[in-house]
Amino acid sequence: MLPESFPTRPRRPRALIPRLLLGCVLGVASALALGGAEENELAAAYLYNFSKFVHWPSSAMRDPAAPLVLCVYGRTPAGESIGALDGKLAQGHRIRIDRLSRGDALTRCHIVYVSASESPYLNPLLRTLANRPALTVSEIPGFAAAGGMIGFVKEDNRLRFEINRGSAEAAGLSLSSQLLKLATRVQ
């Protein structure tokens, strides 16, 4: 016979797995010292985890078989590392990597990684993407403060990120509370 205080319902460990995975990957990633190749791989790891912990409105993902499109906008040394995400699963969708140049249409993108090469054109780009259900991420300094959604920052030689929650919510995106807790700053 079980004591009355003993839980009779089994716990749901599957519900904890995403939280533990996010904490482990992002925690380890932020603890590593940065070098060129390592930083690129960390950026790709962050992008992959962002794809799992950001929820898009149903209008952005009408077809359950449609890919989650991660667009790399501009030239970036992280391109090869990000390319390794092609075909991985996130929220039941295969990730497809599209490489775009200035002037290319961004309408099919669910995530737009804006490379530092596009820094001079950032304001017009963010105006184009404003209120569209596309997560914007960049290594450009001050990206989140400028209206981007997630900006990578270096702190103590570690890659971290800031979040502009207002920009994400205006676009109809929902960021998990675990993701918000791991940000160095939420605006």
Characteristic terms for this protein:
two-stranded antiparallel ribbon; globular; disordered N terminus; single chain; Rossmann fold; 10 strands; 8-stranded mixed sheet; 187 residues; alpha/beta
Structure description:
With 187 residues, the protein is an alpha/beta fold. The protein has one domain: 3-Layer(aba) Sandwich (Rossmann fold), CATH 3.40.50.2300. It is 33% helix and 22% strand. The protein contains six helices and ten strands; from the N terminus they run ααββαβββαβββαβαβ. The strands form two sheets. An eight-stranded mixed β-sheet has the order 3-4-2-5-6-7-8-10, sandwiched between helices. Strands 1-9 form a two-stranded antiparallel sheet. The longest helix has 19 residues, at 13-31. The radius of gyration is 18 Å and the shape is globular. The model is unreliable at 1-25 and 27-34 (pLDDT under 50).
How would you summarize this macromolecular structure in one to three sentences?
About 35% of the residues lie in helices and about 20% in strands.
